[in-house]
């Protein structure tokens, strides 16, 4: 497989778009975490830690879910 054919493959294009979408998705998740932490300044450290861990899990899942969604959209209808 040539480099040009690889670059034009559906999987590579879906991965590139997933990373591009992750830029705004990560920004939204970070803004939501900032809002939650701002609303809970006097909350226990455990609640703030839970919110931060949830944000990290979402950050890890977003590119994977977006990649799967984009691949499903690109698959030919059967």
| Number of beta strands | 0
Percent range of helical residues: over 70%
Give the overall form: rod-shaped
Oligomer: single chain
Series of H and E elements? HHH
The number of helical elements comes to 3
DSSP strand content: under 5%
Low-confidence stretches: none
Largest sheet: none
- Using the CA coordinates, give the radius of gyration: 17 Å
Structural class: mainly alpha
Mean pLDDT, nearest integer? 90
Ends apart, CA distance between termini: 26 Å
Secondary-structure map with pairings?
Blueprint lengths: L2 H5 L2 H30 L5 H30 L4
Helix pairs in contact: 2-3
Can you characterise this structure?
The chain has 78 residues and is mostly helical. Helix content is 83%, strand content 0%. The chain is built from three helices and no strands. It has helices at residues 3-7, 10-39, 45-74. α2 (10-39) packs antiparallel against α3 (45-74). The longest helix is centred in the N-terminal third of the chain and has 30 residues, at 10-39. The two termini are 26 Å apart. The model has no long low-confidence stretch (mean pLDDT 90).
Question: What's a concise summary of this model?
Answer:
With 78 residues, the chain is mostly helical. It is built from three helices and no strands.
């Amino acid at each position: 497989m040539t480099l040009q054919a690889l670059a034009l493959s559906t999987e590579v294009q879906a991965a590139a778009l997933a990373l591009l979408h992750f830029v705004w998705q990560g920004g939204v998740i970070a803004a939501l975490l900032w809002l939650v932490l701002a609303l809970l300044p006097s909350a226990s450290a455990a609640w703030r830690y839970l919110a931060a861990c949830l944000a990290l899990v979402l950050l890890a899942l977003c590119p994977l879910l977006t990649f799967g969604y984009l691949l499903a959209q690109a698959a030919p209808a059967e």
